[in-house]
Amino acid sequence: MDRPYSKLEPVVIPRIFLATPMHKDSRIHGETAVYCSYVANQRFTQWGYTSTISPEMSRNTLIEDHTHNVKADEWTHVYFIDTDVVPQQLCLENLLALDADVCVGVYPLFLLNHGFKWSVTDMDRNLLLMSEPLPKESFETRSAGAGCLLVRREVLEDIGWPYFKMIYQPKWENNGNAIKSMEDMYFFDKVTEKGYKIICDPKEICKHYNSVDLLSAYRNAVHVLG
Description:
Spore Coat Polysaccharide Biosynthesis Protein SpsA, Chain A, 6 helices, Nucleotide-diphossugar_trans, seven-stranded mixed beta sheet, two-stranded antiparallel sheet, alpha/beta
């Protein structure tokens, strides 16, 4: 059987670790909590969440603790959902159907001086975030946001700790930018270095409450400008 998105053995029964990384204030959006509760009540799913000084540390802690406490044959995937991201109801099922080692849904971002962008890049090395239009079918990407991310356990074992890491750089030597690489970009760099494909399902568009509902704001902006 052709499996273009995976180099691992196929999974017969997916066993999901739903991981919600929290900031130190432990807040989660109400819609996100409802979605996570829905997923957590499905068969062969465990929900883990923790709050540390940063989402980056929370991601690493969740994986490390789960790996230590749960036998490898009791889980097949980690499904990361950020506290301000709300996937569609069947997002997990649709991502699993891709049979990919690493796959993501998409959500809108708002960047000062750049406007609305999607949380995914194309395959170019410049790593520029996509704007409209997104492809209509699943596609390979170079990097993405980790707010809606499904990854096989074996991939995490292969890339090793730290799975996520923020990389800093001297601010005044880099046009005032103190961040060289966000923690999700670090993760996807390690993934691609190991030869895994990153697959995006553009039909799995999530809400993103980054202080406001960015998906609604984006659609309103498109309506007004269009």
